[in-house]
Amino acid sequence: MLIPRFTIRGLLLLMTVSGVLSLVLAYAVRGRVWAIAASVGVASLLLAFLGYAFAFGVASVVAATAGLLRGTDAGPATPFATAEPPPQILPPDQPE
Predict the structure, then answer these.
(1) Which of the listed ranges 3-7, 8-12, 33-37, 86-90 does the model predict with the highest average pLDDT?
(2) How far is CA 40 from the centre of its chain?
(3) What interhelical angle do 33-70 and 8-29 show, nearest 10?
(4) What is the Cα–Cα distance from 79 to 86, expressed in whole angstroms?
């Protein structure tokens, strides 16, 4: 689908969170210690998740490059995919 689905509830929640965050940042600019600490905490979390996303991107590029260098040879098949169903440990019950 080309148009993403946004609900009114989700947009109101986003606006509320943005408003509270802006209020805390305004108090931090005014010098309130608790607001500065909260702002530093939120910024630290965002920076950590940005670092995690960067590490994931690097690992993804390395894995894709290793796959290209390995060639088009298909890897080993999974031992769990067989042509027949798995053996039954307990026999199925027959309804009477």
Answers:
(1) 33-37
(2) 23
(3) 120
(4) 12
How many whole angstroms separate alpha carbon 44 and alpha carbon 30? Answer: 20
* Residues composing the chain: 96
pTM: 0.59
Q: Which two tokens stand for residue 17?
A: 């969170």
Rounded Cα distance, 52 and 91, in Å: 48
Read off the tokens for 16.
């509320």
pLDDT in tens, 6-28: 889 989 999 999 999 999 999 99
Q: Which residue has the tokens 């307990």?
A: 90
C-alpha distances out from residue 38 to 16, 32, 44, Å: 17, 10, 10
Instruction: Establish how many alpha carbons lie within 13 A of residue 58's alpha carbon, considering only the half-sphere containing its beta carbon.
Output: 6
Tokens read off for 88: 């039954």
Using CA atoms, how far apart are residues 19 and 88, in angstroms rounded to an integer? Answer: 58
